[in-house]
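Quarterly update from the structural biology core.
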Amino acid sequence: MSDRNDRPRIRRDERDLVGDLLSIADSGPEIPADGADRIKAAIKTQWRRDLRARARRRWTIAAAGVAAAAILAVAVTTLDRSDRVVTRPTGPVAYFDVVDGRVEVVSADGRSIVSSELDLPRAIAAGSWIRTAGESRAGLRLGEGQSLRLDVDTSIRLASTTRVDLERGAAYLDSRDANGSPVDIATPFGIASDVGTQFEVRLTEGLLSVAVREGVVAINRDDLDLEVGSGVAVTVSADGRIDRRRIDPSSGYWTWVQEIAPPFDIEGRSVADFLGWVSRETGSLIRYSEPGLERFARDTVLHGTAAGLSPIQAPDVVLASCGLIAEKNGEFLVVRRDRVPSR
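Predicted structure, tokenized:
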């Protein structure tokens, strides 16, 4: 062990030399007036990229755990969106998937169309306002594949394929299976940034609430950079106060989202495909009650239609056609054979 007295010392003449060098050194280029803002923007961009990378790692780990437990999981390819080039929209930025009740669309030039005049799928141009009435909801497909759903009494502006301005109410975004650039939901209290996830943004009584069902969401504003993970709901007040609470992905909180889910076309699809959709929309994990049922689900092809059925209702109807039933058991939806007693 060396003694402190053995450490090298800076002699007086060396300190003088350092001072002389500093006195003649060039001060360097002047920092531009917007330099601080540019540095902050660069840091924030890198921060969002890091969040996306962590979200991808979490999905990989979660998928491995599900496979080990013999639970059906939906196969997902997670793409790196950090290097995508965002371009200005040259065509429609969204299409209506589902309309339930009275929905109004006001285009950028002021023309208004109500839901009774909408033919689905209806193309929506950039700059359009969409408003749902007090008992109405709407489901849209953004131009790059994301599912956007609007709760009752909601008003949004579709600024572009990657930005939604929320004026009031609640918007839910599901972008995990999309191939496009991340989407920002902007509010007067901050911007919720999509990191490949399912989440809801809600404005109520001057508060911003962000509930994350899956993945990660970044909330940005001048005085706040916040990461919200899966199963967490955060409320942010105008003065920056933050409240957190847990929220289960399969809880009744998400019922409104399922009621306005885009329809699943079962024709020619397997039972496993259908159950993957049910799992995605309800937040329930699929479990098979006996060996061999998972393979049966993969090999069995469905025909017909499930139009008009929500993800909660559809299993009872669709599975019955192939001799199966599904029962909710906590976070799981247990699939078993329908053993109808003989008479």
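The chain has a mean pLDDT of 78.
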